[in-house]
Give the backbone structure.
Amino acid sequence: MQPLFILGPTGSGKSAIAVAVAQQLGNAEIISADAYQVYRAMPILTAAPGPEEQGGIPHHLIGHMEVQENNDAATHARSAQACIEAVQARGNTPIITGGSGLYVKFISHGISPAPPSDPALRAELMALPAEECVRRLQEADPEGAAATNLQNPRYVVRNLEIVLLGGKPLSYWRNNWQPQACGAGFTICRDVPELDARIAARARHMLRHGAIDEVAALPAQLSPTAEKTLGLSLIRQHLRGELTLPQLETALALATRQYAKRQRTWLRREPWATPLLLSPATTVQHAVDCILNAL
């Protein structure tokens, strides 16, 4: 009854594989490690599995929050851990599936002791030019800056935030976090051209099956996490008449491909999860067999 992690970038097919594994095990429940599927008002935009896709398997941490509520990796990990313990208490196997890197990391290895984000400081740093944040990080923690991807403003801001709030270099937090892997893991991988095609088809399907109406119906004020939902700002541009539908479809597919690339980069740094390379000819059952045989 140890947790089983089925991970992968968006569009890789991990959700369908997780459901099939759960059905074959016969005593499993699925826990989402997705940062945005928690919002009940955006099931189409976040590609949350609906009742039919869930295949009769209990799912947790999907569609249980309002868009005004904030979510972060630590909060989500605590909720996931409570779900894992409850599933195990029922004698079932928890299957965690998703692709939000830090959310997966905190669920699988525990929550980092680094100081949590401070909204006021985060807003202040985000308002600065990117090069100013880089300069400040290099001055405050030269070693940490050298180990940071300085081309990624999100990483720079978060690492600078940790140094400023914690009063210690990044190495301190890394050296004082002794993560312990929790269960077995598999990462669903596909060749980039195939994944890109799947992402394009998903973007087209979303836009033609309610994602635009979903965004139009959202309240004016969303939480910081909900505001970052992939595709939200693009659909808003379309609703303001700034993008045609074909332009929106192209832009959404591009943004999703870029997000999937970041996910692949993150997941490659998680060697505890076994890569499982699939092709267009690979059936879901074959993927399930590979996972269960490896276990």
In short: The chain has a mean pLDDT of 92.
